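Morning!

This is the sequence you dropped in the shared folder:
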Amino acid sequence: MIDIEQPDQLTAYLRARGIVAAEEQPNIRVLTGGVANKTVLVEHAGGGLVVKQALGKFRVKVDWFVQPERSALEALGLRTYEALLPAGRTPRFLFEDFDHFIHAMTAIPQPHETLKRLLLGGQGTPTLIERFAALMAASHLRALQHADALRPQFASLDYFETQRLEPFYAYTATQVPEAADFIHALIDETRRTQLTLVHADFTPKNILVLPDDQLVLLDFEIVHWGDPAFDVGLALAHLIAKTIKVEARRADYAAYARLFSAAYLEQVGNTFGALEGRIVRHALACLLARVRGRSPLEYFDEPQRAAIAARAVDQVMQLPPTLHALVDALTSLF
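The structure's back. Tokens below.
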């Protein structure tokens, strides 16, 4: 099995595929930050590409195993979102290799930055948040227009179970027993709710921001036909976390979290039923997961995680009636 993080191995592999010329020595750089894949940037005479290889054991402190065959789902997901969204809103798919759990895509030219880094650096803007909401809403609405074709392709929940429902929800229920009944009921509801294509990692770390503030969506390995409320709730949990973390812009970021929620709901309307209540529940569960699940947010220390978990549990017990009320309740005491 090739190891793409070894430059000599990857260079030989790309030469064998005819991507890199025999006499050429490409520039290869391992990209860090992800836990589920080996990811490498390759720059050569023909341009730049990103090569990803799925891991069987994630790079986190607790054991987390997922079949690397999911690489095929990510390749299919990338091709699907590339077709659904406007040109340039995803990388372009290049090739896949089932035998080595590899797929490749075009590299997004520099300069760019992740929305996560911009937010943590205090550089969030209303424009970025509105475009974040618009991109998510477009993905959900456009997929629904092609439901007959997409639903059977993404009907399996296997990887959503192993990468979200178990490590985010079921595991968190064992760590926060006072929220266990709430979480298990949400797991059951989520399995039953199948409305449109769900990315399941539509978060600021998977959004690249270009110099003109256009956004590019990355990482498609948990795509499934499910409840769009999960995407919105997970994204909102991350925006709330950034609000708590970036004290100097807390009032602005709380307003941005409310803006994100309102912009998304305005664009989808009643398409997906009683959506707001489901988003509230997913946002609470995802926030708990990011401080008590298998992969906690790295920018909080343990006392901060404990405080966030306690505040989230308080809200689980009373369930705010609106997303605005949820944002206010989770951010006002920090």
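Headline: The beta strands are 27-31, 37-44, 47-54, 93-97, 102-106, 113-114, 196-198, 207-209, 215-217, 224-226.

More detail when I'm at my desk.
O.
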